[in-house]
Amino acid sequence: MTHSAEVMPQDLLGLEIRVRGQVQGVGFRPFVWRLARDMGLSGDVRNDSEGVLIRLVGDATGFEDRLRAQMPPLARIDAVETRSLQLTDTVFEGFEIVASQSGATHTRVTPDAATCDACLHEVFDPQERRAGYAFTNCTHCGPRFTIVEKLPYDRSRTTMAPFEMCPACRAEYENPEDRRFHAQPVACADCGPRLWLHPPIEGDPVTNTAKLLRDGKIIAVKGLGGFHLACDACDDEAVARLRRRKHRPAKPFALMGTLEMIRQWCDVSDAEEAMLRDPAAPIVLLPARCVPKGIAPGQNTLGWMLPYTPLHHLLIDAVGGPLVMTSGNLSGEPQVIGNEEACEKLAGFADAFLLHDRRIARRLDDSVERVTPHGAMVLRRARGRVPGTLHLPEGFEQAPQVAAYGGQMKGAICLLKDGQMLLGHHLGDMDDALTYEAFLQADKDYTALFDHQPEVVACDLHPEFRTSIYAQEKGLPVQRVQHHHAHGAACLGENGWPLTGGKVAMIVLDGLGLGPDGTVWGGEVLLGDYCEAQRMFWLRPAPLIGGDMAAKEPWRNLLARLDQAGCGDVAETYVPQPALLGMLRKAVERGVNTTLSSSAGRLFDAFSCLTGFVGAQSYEGQAAMELEAKARLEIARYGQSGLCALPLPVSKGEIDPAEMFRRVLEGSEHGGDWARSPATLFHMSLAQTFAACARGLVTSGQAEAVALTGGVFQNALLLDLTRKALGDVPVLIHTKVPANDGGLALGQALVAAARHLDLDR
Predict the structure, then answer these.
(1) Per CATH, which fold does 392-495+736-761 belong to?
(2) Which listed residue, 287, 510, 592, 658, has the most CB atoms within 10 A of its CB?
């Protein structure tokens, strides 16, 4: 690894350069080695627990500029710190790459990355020695976070440790001029992980799997962060069979195919193509020209991803068409990752299993994203994005180390350390015992992997959430953060809003969150900053008839809103069992299991039921997603121009949506815009009313900007309409952090840090 050169005098002044960021496992050291050699510099470079450390002797003019401009594709530099170094006791012979050093961890791990073009060429070139090899990778691609067990990131600290490199792979691994230099997962068919089909069939596993898929079979496929259940996306019966086996009647399935296959089903913009091709390779929601039977009932978008491992590329090529690729798990449970676990738990779903012997260090679901007129939107942050970090905003330089644990739904953990915010991967709903076990393991895992030692922990205000109970048991100071304040803080933090940047009007449209007044919030405008927030406007509360059942059966929310609007006489049309009406209304009257809530999510459910949604929701957000799809269909059919939104009345801060329900019922009798485009007008009215409330706080000087947050803002149409209704006031939106509860922990961590800093002043 040493480049020969003259021995340098021992009394020269050198430079020590500390590079922080995503700089391990991405080919950064060989890049530095080549750069130093090109510039005629001597010295060395190493990985350590803080990132990459470079020592240089010679004329280093322009070195840092080239370091930033020419770095490897997966590298991300957070900071470059340079200081003079007296080299009186050091002799360098050329420039050398030296062994890693351990210690307290201040660096970060690179997310898993989709197969690069160079590796893909090798996989499909019969002349290459890795032709057809399903685990081909290099420093520019392949598994990272799903295989690393300890830092610094070296092969002995990954799940590749059991695979001893053959001489050919070892030669690549040790050659700084090779793109596989110190690529920890480097392997080939002679020495690396192997693939097999269970039950076994003689012949090539990929070829046999492809034949089974073409024959209509369902296959459990082991990937990077867990298993997928795969079937031929063009086989309606296979798709229907998968739905029956998974007891998943309507939730959309994710699809995998080449870009050419995707274009046969969907329109793909340049921005959407770029998102698909990103090394993170997320599932991207795309507008569909048609939705094949069974793939995404009630929707007009499809979730597509490109093949992101050599195995996926080989499988898609062998099948010759797109595949359904849905998470391999029992309903509500985390994705399975072990071979034995998969064969046991997925036996009722899969006809066969495509397995390999590289152990998965941690489960990661596929990330889910979409492109809006205002940029990217992250719906689920997981594989390919985690454990990427964000910079802490200005003013948080002295923030303590903080651990935040999120809420009850869409669990994720957030750590603050060294000026960075690390939002962990999607875990799921804590109601499930196995998901909670995964949460406990994730906390232990992140704490050890990043040497995190929190001074304070943060959780939701709700005392009965499992994550809140866990935080209280940590034995550390606890900051309990109101649910929707945390959503607002997450949006501020993602956008780099300074700690002293002033107050912001936060439009928070969400499902359910306990308010400090003991009621259930979910649709409000807050005025606040990181430390505190005041509720200024809110949706008129309506009873959650039947408690938790209101989230599953939208007609319960419709009944509540119809009665409030004075239209209860038509309720029996929408209630599956009209005989229940008297009993349910009496429960509301007596306050039995009918908590009042201002939830925007439940308002969407009610209106979706009014405009055609029937029955119970088979997955969270189904009714609201179908309402958005219906609005887009109305806009495509009739257009949006000429429609007049209904300004909802606001009295003493309370926004009353009753008139929208009355208009739809009147429209069904008399025609007009509310009969033709009810879903569109609902979106427009809600957007313009909330925008007017928030904009007023800015124009009156009470707020400096408006933030749009909460799970309901994952509705891209509502986001666009609200953003436009706000006009020229500064607006903050989510583009890297989920607007839903998947981003909650980040907001909690920021609130906890801000309050801690405020106490220190």
Answers:
(1) Nucleotidyltransferase; domain 5 (3.30.420)
(2) 510
Q: Is 593 annotated in the active site?
A: no
Residue 105's pLDDT band, with cuts at 50, 70 and 90, is low
The per-residue pLDDT for range 281-313, each reduced to its tens digit, is 999 999 999 888 899 999 999 999 999 999 999
What's the confidence (pLDDT) of residue 613?
Answer: 95
Phi, psi of 436 (to 5 degrees): -65, -40
- Identify the three-state secondary structure at position 640: coil
- Tell me how far CA of residue 200 lies from CA of 147, 196, 558, in angstroms: 26, 7, 53
Determine which of 94-108, 223-237, 239-253, 507-521 has the lowest per-residue pLDDT on average: 94-108
CA gap 390, 393 in Å, rounded: 9
The distance from CA 398 to its chain's CA centroid, rounded to whole angstroms, is: 28
Q: For 188-198, what is the mean pLDDT? A: 98
Q: What pairs with residue 2 in β-bridges?
A: 96
Class of domain 13-97: alpha beta
Q: Residue 106 phi/psi, 5° resolution?
A: -130, 10
* pLDDT computed for residue 498 by the predictor: 98
The residue annotated as part of the active site, out of 18, 46, 47, 339, is 47
Tens digits of per-residue pLDDT, 600-631? 999 999 999 999 999 999 999 999 999 999 99
Q: What is each CA distance from 735 to 237, 372, 490, 564, in whole angstroms? A: 37, 10, 11, 37
Q: How far apart are CA 330 and CA 351, in angstroms?
A: 16
Q: What is the pTM of this model?
A: 0.93
pLDDT of residue 10: 43
Task: Give the DSSP per-residue string, 362-425.
Answer: S--PBPEEEEETTEEEEEE--BTTTT-EEEPPTT-TTPPPEEE---SSSB--EEEETTEEEE--
Catalytic-labelled residue, pool 18, 20, 29, 248: 29
pLDDT digits (tens, 9 = 90+) for 531-558: 999 999 999 999 999 999 999 999 999 9
Q: Which residues of 627-643 are buried (b: 16+ CB within 10 A; e: fewer)?
A: bbbbbbebbeeeebeeb
Question: Are domains 195-368 and 392-495+736-761 of this chain identical in fold?
Answer: no
Helices (H), 539-580: 549-552, 554-564
- pLDDT value, residue 373: 95
Helix-strand-coil split of the chain, %, nearest 5: 35, 20, 45
- Say whether 585 is catalytic: no
Tokens of 524: 């409000």
Whether 593 has a pLDDT exceeding 90, the answer reads yes
**Structural domain boundaries of the chain?**
13-97, 195-368, 392-495+736-761, 538-732
Identify the architecture of domain 538-732 in CATH. Answer: 2-Layer Sandwich (3.30)
Please tell me the CATH code under which domain 195-368 is placed: 3.90.870.40
- Do 7 and 30 contact (CB within 8 A), yes or no? no
Q: What is the pLDDT of residues 132-186, one digit of tens each?
A: 999 999 999 999 999 998 877 789 999 999 999 999 999 999 998 899 998 999 9
Rg (CA), the chain: 28
What is the SS3 string spanning 489-548?
A: HHHHHHCCCCCCCCCEEEEEEEEEEECCCCCEEEEEEEEECCCCEEEEEEECCEECCCCC
Helices 658-670 & 554-564 angle (0-180, nearest 10): 90
| Structure token pair of residue 304 | 């597509």
**Contact in structure between 623 and 669 (CB atoms under 8 Å):** no
